[in-house]
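I hope you will forgive my troubling you with a question about protein structure. The matter concerns a single protein, recorded as an amino acid sequence and a row of backbone structure tokens. Please examine both parts with care and let me know of anything in them that strikes you as inconsistent. Thank you for your consideration; the sequence and its tokens are set out here:
***
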Amino acid sequence: MLTLEDRITARVKAVDFRAWRDRVTAIGGCAAPIRLSGAFQLQDLNGGVIEHIGGDVMVPCGNRRESVCPACSDRYAADAYHLMHAGLAGGSKGVPADVSEKPRVFATLTAPSFGPVHNRPTITTGKVRPCTGCGEWHHGDDPRIGGAVDPGSYDYMGAVLWQAHAGKLWHRFTIALRRKLAGAAGLKVSEFKNHARLSYAKVAEYQRRGLVHFHAVIRVDGPDGPHDPTPAWATAELLGDCIKAAARSVGIDTTRPDGSALRLLWGEQVDTKGIRGSQVEDESGEINEARLAGYVAKYATKGTGAKDTADRPIRSQLDIDVLHISEHHRRMVQTAWDLGGLADFEELNLRKWAHMLGFRGHFLTKSKHYSTTFRAIREERRTFRTLEMFERLELDPAAVVVVNDWQYAGSGYDNDAERELAAGIAERVRAQRLRKYEQEGGPDHVRAA
């Protein structure tokens, strides 16, 4: 029986390998490409064919999770960076340059405690302290970190229900924040929209205990958005105070399967930092725009934090039984699956989101006026490549019709040898991009990708 190394050697020696390699390189070494069959054609206005390409092609899967596809997650992180940075620094993507002068705060809202978990706390100098849960000194890669100290008493049901309502809790927080700002300015809540607008972009990041916390850039604009001057009463200090007050004031009331009441709240830790345009960080803890956008881009590509999981939907109990994850995360998956089978929790659709430990929200969301959109960024990239093709063929875009006719033909690669070769291509493409951006002084998120 041939080994994997033998199969890779055979694939490299195949007649069509160079063509296959070029196709995989063109999509950055995507781990699970979509295969299409059909044709692409350029026609003049009279219907004459100028250029015709037919056959089978590969397109990237587009998955944002690094654990699923490193190549596509890099692209997603780059788009997330530009989306975040445009709303921070302005001067691009239709956002005015003076947006950086508006009151802005980087806020972190966390989940509450559902029981003691193993941890590895450090002091400001970086020195590690004993676990507050068990008293032991944990290594950084200790698989127990994040897991319940006493699984029997840990509130897995409460944790999953909090996770399932986290998006709704954020929505209530934004409503409360507008009310707090209006009150601080001496305005009626109904008058706030006539004086100011709250703009934000947030990303969800999983903690090692399996619960999300939200990192958000929150900005106060004028009533018509970033092009409108912010009222003089709105300051970053006021915004930070109102964020903390709003987080403490909101909650969601629900019930457990036995009918007992459960109130879902934010965790006690609500962190706020000012944002500077020029410095990386100063003594007050203010953070630089570019680095902050890079942080958020990195958060946006992370999965649950549960190692060795496919990060894909659970289809049956058997899927749970064979997952190679910690017992803590397995208990969360199992709890979400069990609750999802109960009629009282049907609207939460927990079985669909059991693989995400009950979290049902989007990982990166933004208000309408914060900056651009992912769709606009992708359309801009698509337009650039199309115009680049017209220039190469010396064609006038106004005199050409583009005709696409593609059908789905499958997903992924034919075998493990091709998957290994594609992974190698992805690493090479990433290394080349890293070298290029280091030479050009590219942004931190690209260097770290």
Observations:
- DSSP finds twelve helices and eleven strands in the chain.
- Confidence is low (pLDDT under 50) at residues 444-449.
